[in-house]
Amino acid sequence: MAVGTLALFYPVFLPMSATAIAYLGHRALYVDWRAVLTHFFTGPGRTSRILLAFFLVLNWKSLPLAWTVRVFHTFIYHIIRRPKKLPQRALFHYGISASRTSLLETDYNIHKSNSTYFADLDVSRSHLVTHLLQPGMPIIGDNAKHQRVRDKNGKLVEGAFGIGLGAVFCSFRREIAPLQGYEMWSRILSWDRKWLYIVTHFVVKGKVRPTGWDGRRMGPTRERVVLADGSGEPADFSKYVIATAISKYVFKLGRFTVHPALVIDAAGLLPERPGEGWTGGETGTGTPEDLGDLDEQGEWDWRRVEAERRKGLQYAEHFAALDGTNSLFDGGEDGAVGYFPLG
Fold this sequence. Notes:
By secondary structure, this protein is of the alpha+beta class. Helices cover 34% and strands 16% of the residues. The chain has a domain at 60-271: Thiol Ester Dehydrase, Chain A (Roll), CATH 3.10.129. InterPro entries: HotDog_dom_sf, THEM6_lcsJ_thioesterase.
């Protein structure tokens, strides 16, 4: 998701899309669909047309503009279907979406090409971020009215709101066969003073179900087994993981980087934190108080949120450290092996 995409979505893409759909619907009323379908399935050349239609259906997600449709569908879907308010515990919950490997995504090893995972990640992340943070985006975007974001000198920040993708890491464990279905489970992993980290697991379809849903029921669930000591079930769900990716997003107002906690707080998903809040302290993510013994079944307060953020940050910090590899590029100081065509 590029910076400025959301800034253009509401005033430009949404009205254009609505106008185009309305026009196509108007034109469709004047088409004799029975005659069209009869000719399609029985007229000369029907075999070629049917095979082509079948091929296009199997490979729709790999067709031109399909990625754009998939991503912008996430925005429209969550504007229409998102509950008015989510519980604060939803902050680290998974957003689940399903897909299937098309034939055009298959490589010479006869499985889903590694490069195509990143297009799926775009869609999965867009679902999650739009669903969780969509209420906070207009608040941060209209900063002149809500006055949530200020620079280090206390000056109110101006500019269009946008989201930028900073980096993606993906670890592959097993292959996905052609036409095989799979699920993408994405959730917020952590955040620091600049980046929001998101972890996505590609999971075998139908093998794992959540114990519940935040809001209306959206599919089957499973029972959570509670042991005698009050802990959860020791099931190993990692055996169903096909691949795992970590992505990092940055929020912008113009060219100014917005603290992720400000966006999350504007969406109503952060409990109040004492002291300097979620953007204070030396690290810019709150003063490092001792969290003490946490009751995982207790109230979803700032201590539980901070404990989860710190746990995820242990992984995110290693990922963020890879940014330093940019400095390894020396411009071929000692030479290069060649310059190759068809790159």
